[in-house]
Model the fold of this input.
Amino acid sequence: MMDMSAWIQPKPAGESVERKIKHYQQDGETTVYDTDIEFPYPDGSLIVSRTDLNGIITHANDVFVEISGWTRDEIIGAPHCILRHPDMPKAAFTDMWETLKRGERWYGYVKNLRKDGGYYWVYATVIPNFRKGQVIGYSSIRRKPARQRIDEIIELYSSMLTKEQEGK
Ligand SMILES: Cc1cc2nc3c(=O)[nH]c(=O)nc-3n(C[C@H](O)[C@H](O)[C@H](O)COP(=O)(O)O)c2cc1C
Done:
């Protein structure tokens, strides 16, 4: 379990809504600021990161740093849930981790939170990295998602989130 207080998102200068995130892998709850402003995914770019076995970021490419709004120094060593958006259902991440723990790849749509409270959608492929038959960490490569798929996923995730919040 990690203390998340080292990665507190600063309150954005403009209008924002304060929202709570209940963490599943990390300890407790954090407060995040959501401006509901979408940041356009840069055309033709791949966003790449690598983590250790616990989801701590060990590598991030330049596009990752740019789109997340955090500096590279802040990102490296941070838990990947630093990008967790309050609109994301827990089930998406439990499915991701169960798939990775079986040694398989996971594909899915993820809404990520920027440091400035904005957001960006990605289509992510997350894979286990093997060395000599052992999983030594994970990589994620994201590309720009199709807008039409995002519209469907928004509905799906919102109904999943409602069910989770109602405790069903
Ligand atoms: C390689 C890799 C990449 C990940 N990328 C993201 C990401 O872009 N956004 C995100 O919210 N979680 C990502 N995760 C999942 C986080 O580790 C975490 O499970 C999730 O944010 C929920 O965290 P929490 O339960 O502690 O709140 C990634 C995990 C791995 C292993």
About this structure: The CA atoms of residues 16 and 35 lie 4 Å apart. The domain at 15-161 is CATH 3.30.450.20 (Beta-Lactamase). The pocket of flavin mononucleotide is lined by residues 23-26, 49, 51, 55, 80-81, 83-84, 93, 110, 112, 126, 138-140 (CB under 6 Å). The chain has a mean pLDDT of 94.
